[in-house]
Design brief:
The protein contains 2 helices and 4 strands. It is an alpha+beta fold. A 4-stranded mixed β-sheet has the order 1-2-3-4. About 15% of the residues are buried.
Length: about 120
């Protein structure tokens, strides 16, 4: 990492050890989506039969990833959740829609699962 980041005065002095959650596998990766040399992508793989719910913006100008989530949350079934450290830009048009749908479709074909994510990198 380039330099030491400032620590918030509200930050806890210690980080608690979290217990394992049955049926959940977590992974983090420094993918270079938002930061260099720092984890910026999280994957949660969930047990078969898991269900999901979400709280999304009510904005009439929500981004393509938010619209993708809204459409897919109605299925309630989930096998994986992918989250990045970036944000979901709005007004990206067809490129934003493509960036939101192509990666999950590729993972679904590879894993035989339906991927649900709530953010994905902005289109180039």
């Amino acid at each position: 990492m380039a330099g030491q980041l400032p620590v918030s005065p509200l930050a806890p002095r210690t980080t608690p050890t979290l217990p394992r959650i049955a049926g959940v596998e977590l992974a983090a990766h420094a993918a270079g989506l938002r930061y260099q040399d720092r984890d910026d992508l999280m994957l949660a793989v969930l047990a078969p039969g898991s269900v999901i719910a979400g709280v999304l913006t009510k904005s009439k100008t929500s981004s393509a990833p938010v619209e993708w989530c809204r459409k897919n949350l109605s299925r309630r079934k989930v096998r994986a959740i992918i989250v990045n450290a970036g944000n979901a830009n709005a007004f990206t048009g067809k490129a934003g829609t493509a960036a939101s749908t192509k990666p999950p479709a590729r993972w679904r074909r590879r894993s035989n699962a339906r991927a649900t994510k709530c953010s994905w990198p902005r289109p180039a």
